[in-house]
Amino acid sequence: MNTEESFFNRKKQQLGVQLNNVQKKAVLHTRGPLLLLASPGSGKTTTTIMRIGYLIEEVGVEPSRIKAVTFSRASAADMKERFARFFPEHTTTPVDFSTIHSLAFQVVRDYFYKQKVSYQLIEGSLDGGPNKKLLLRNIYKAMNDEIITEEQLEDLTTYISFIKNKLLPQNEWQNIDCDIPFVEAIFEEYEKIKNADPSNLLLDYDDMLTIANDVFNKDTLILQKYQKRYDYVLTDESQDTSLVQHKIIKKLVKPHHNLFVVADDDQSIYSWRGAEPTYLLDFKKVYHNAVILKMEQNYRSSKDIVDVANRFIKRNKNRYDKNMFTENNSHKPIQITQFEDYRNQAKYLVQEIDLVEKKKDVAVLYRNNSSSIMLINELDRNQIPFYIKDSDNRFFSHWVVKDILNFMRMSFTDRRVDIFQQIYTKCGFYLSREQLFKLTKKKPSESIFERLLQNKGLKDYQQKQIQACQKTFQEMKGGKPLKAIKLIRNQLSYDKTLKDMSKKLGFNTEYIFSVLQTLEEIADSLDTMEQFAERLNHLEELMKVSKFNKNKDAITLSTFHSSKGLEFKKVYMIDLIEGVFPSHDEINKYKDGERDLMEEAVRLFYVGMTRAEQELELLTYKKQNGKEVSQSRFVANVKNIVSTPVKVQTSEPKKKLKTEKPMVPYNPDAIIKAEDIQEGMTIKHRVFGQGTVVSINGEKIEIQFQKVRKALLLETCLEMGLLELANELSVN
Asked: Does 691 lie in the same domain as 596?
């Protein structure tokens, strides 16, 4: 028996791991560059770990001379843990598992130490020190004279990261699409502030990459130090790697070219943050003697799913020709379900999921985080536990949500100028700053509308509008929240205001109106506006604490992007309509002859399909917000492949759900009785940290935390085990 087979047989007996022929070829390739194209569920991590073990046990390579670079810290930790499990005898001098950012940080640290330059990272919370997001907020405010929204801040940081990862010179910044006003000037000022003191630089994570690349270009001694440190370099998830990251790795392996690249061009879904999938397609142009292997056997999914996904991805032209296959049996054909109205989607999902015995076997995937709001509302009402992979509570801080709540507050009291100042520009009054200033000088005991009508400088249309608004607010008072929202949208002309603002400022009109529709859905079954405000607080809190349901018997909610690397017995893909998946931007670019965005959308859809092991269901609908919509072209494509009838839900599901107590994350120290909490007591909240109880008033408990005061629903806190007695000496 030769050495190679002896190694594989030994590992089969020790670990129960049996590799197929392509996986064995990958393990045995020990000299020169190799690109391993790994289809979903093809065992790429096992193959990579086995290759590292083979290098150590059979080739005689010292573990510390092997560098394994992963896309995320979670991936690095997973690979390190799995290697320790497979080869525990080789962990004394460990293999160097890390992210590319960690590698870059080492290079930057060495260089600045040599140059005697100090630096400070500005990512994350730094206890009052310079902070990236705060810097950008301040610059935006200074240049635009308004506060940046969370969506705009994300767009801005993505824009900056994209430019740095693409290594774009300043004369090309203008070619990058971004709706942020004065975005180039903001970026330029941001860099100016960070580099204001050459002896004490401020750095973000992307700077680590660009500086490390520059160091490798200009400092031969540091480059050689790292080149001599590693004899073998492995990179995982390389389809997600950016240009600057590829350049760092290329320089690192130049002496020996012992580079093992694991990737799948069909799963490249991060071009918006600088990923370079063309690097894979041009691999042999960069490394002329490279070997390319294709791991096409899928061990994860049923034949029904694999066959359709394999045919679906062939829509794309700019890819390696691969044929994913499986030896798994068929289980159940892919199901396509269509609703008359999108509001039936969440109710249907809850009804179906309620019947599933093991909730952790189920995932619901969506394109946009906003899709999760209506779903968690229904799940909570029916006491079905859930875990959100990448919870994003920006919905609850969205300015439209704040507007609606402020309109409702005005119906309770029309005397508060501070509330009126938040919404008066959206009521069609067209008040001048002088008129608003005069308002603040009048008696606070009078109605704001009466004070306004006393202004002699008002024009006729202003008087009529003020009187009409006053009447509408009186009509809203004490009414149901759904009726209030409809009055705000129609009689207060909020819908018209939103359309005008969107046209002027470039907001996404569809998203804004979907926020309103979601608010109406939440309000639908509630009797008072107070209940509505409490419901929003409750849902926001649920979103935050859902992280404690990880690894519990709870369904998983995730965006398609964040689902990558996960697998579930049953997967629902929702909101599959034109304009969402693919997006309007992808559709328009495709019409203009640009294929790249549409091909990435195809790959993202493919990633979602291949998360399913046994069952996959695609959900679409005919109407949204009262308008006709079209099913996604991707659904139509799958429909043509599977040739099975579409399941049509013509009306709202009516089956009564069984009710169970929601699964509560176990916390043995939790306070479970209201009488155990007193005002002035120091307690700890599982999300917000340590705080002092300010008051307990009926259903609510008010707590002063370190930076914010929160009014929370007491019953929810007790039921979910969110509160516990705090150690007075602990520091948050």
From this structure: no
| 275 and 359 in a common domain | no
Q: Any alpha helices (H) in 125-219, and if so which ranges? A: 132-144, 150-166, 183-194, 205-218
Q: What is the 3-state secondary structure (H, E, C) of 462-487?
A: HHHHHHHHHHHHHHHCCCCHHHHHHH
Which among 373, 310, 313 has a CA at the least distance from the CA of 346? 373
Q: Which helix (H) or strand (E) holds 312?
A: helix 303-313
Question: With contact defined as beta carbons under 8 Å apart, do 230 and 246 qualify?
Answer: no
pTM to 2 decimals?
Answer: 0.82
Q: Could you tell me if residue 659 is inside a domain?
A: no
Residue 97: phi and psi, rounded to 5, are -95, 130
118 within a domain of the structure (yes/no): no
Q: Count of domains in the chain?
A: 5
191 and 243 both lie in a single domain = no
In a domain, 110, yes or no: no
CATH number at residue 59: 3.40.50.300
* DSSP code for 325: B
Tens of pLDDT, residues 240-299: 888 999 999 999 999 899 999 999 999 998 887 778 778 888 899 889 899 999 999 999
Peptide bond into 582 cis (omega under 30): yes
Beta bridge partners, 558, equal 365
Q: Is 683 contained in some domain? A: yes
* HSE-CB for 684 with a 13 A CA cutoff: 14
For the chain, how long is the longest CA-to-CA vector?
Answer: 102
Q: What is the pLDDT of residues 82-135, one digit of tens each?
A: 998 888 888 777 889 999 999 999 999 999 999 889 998 888 755 567 888 889
What is the rounded distance in angstroms from the CA atom of residue 133 to the CA atom of residue 527?
39
Tell me the β-bridge partners of 26: none
